[in-house]
Amino acid sequence: MPEPAERSGTSGASPSPAAGGPAAAGGYDDRVARVALTWLAEPGNRAVWALVQRYGAAPALDRLIEAEPADRRLRASVTARSTLADARRFAETALRRGEQLGARVVVPGDAEWPHRVDDLATLELNVSGQVNRDVRPPLCFWVRGGRPLGETLDRSVAIVGARASTEYGVHVATDLASALAGAGWTVVSGGAFGIDAAAHRGAIAADGRTVAVLACGVERPYPAGNAAMFERIAEQGLIVSEWPIGAEPLRHRFLIRNRVIAAATAGAVMVEAAARSGATQTMSRVLSLGRPAMVVPGPVTSAMSVGCHAVLRGNPYARLVTSADDVLEEVGRIGEYLAEWPRGPEHRRDSLDEEAALVLEAVPRRGSSTPEKLAAVAGLDVRTVLRRLSLLELSGLVIRADDGVRLPPKRR
User: Fold this and answer.
1) Which among 7, 132, 239, 403 has the fewest CB atoms less than 10 Å away?
2) Which fold has domain 155-331?
């Protein structure tokens, strides 16, 4: 397991919390409180985030434990977790264990905090369900890997899609990730089977940076079948999670996690998605945040393309992309990347004016013709035909012979 980033101002990482060193966001108590709060309530909780913003993490933890929260769901969660263990003691144990496993905790005041995620504070969604409404910024991140978190995510693109991907989807995701990583961009995804794994492996193959954002503890990457891939990610990039060491990958946590993928990156690409998919939920967050939302089209006969086409059809701000050049043009600075429009091969006749083109079309494919016959076929006067024939001859498109004008022999 890789060692955590060096605790220095130049690396962007914070001092070791387990050693009691001062953090840029406050002290050891602030870090402990933030870990405890993400254990008592799921990340993104509006009420908890508002308490932290108003009072600070440690006082917010005191208020949450000592005074019953008005929110019924939050009150039930705090009560249930508090019966299992003392929140502060749990957080301190998790921090010590995380350091032993090579993981560190990053909080908003640290130099390596990824400030894009703070935009979640402005996100207002008119949707139902606790998971969909509780989309506030993270209180902290658990990180495995030696790179600074903020710097790694500064120029990053998310690639998301279906777990049950097709061969087409895997091919596209791998190529996109490899090209983006080769251009110096970090590829971010969720570490799952299918499109996620293809994106991570594409970046790894290009010796680029990749970040896996998990919905469980960073020491137990899920799914276990991708364990070897996660170790490579930790070597070349980062493994990130909001949940403390030991947290399990519960189903609803993937939906909570998706808001971080949307907010932490400069834009997101959806490669494949079914009609109901977590990837489409991620893209809705991307669109709500005003980030570039890019979609790869697929075969209309494929069930894994239904979600992609629905996003393109239903959102005027979603952009269709077919290559890494298209993606870079969307996420790069203005004028940094300019993708050329696809064009077929150019021919000498493409630059001809309309009259010259008519004369050339009138020349028979076999044999020769006189200027008078060409004028009759082209519907032009003989003088115009003679002038255009001179230009066509200079361009090598016709040749003059004793019996008239003919096309040059085809080159083998």
Assistant:
1) 403
2) Rossmann fold (3.40.50)
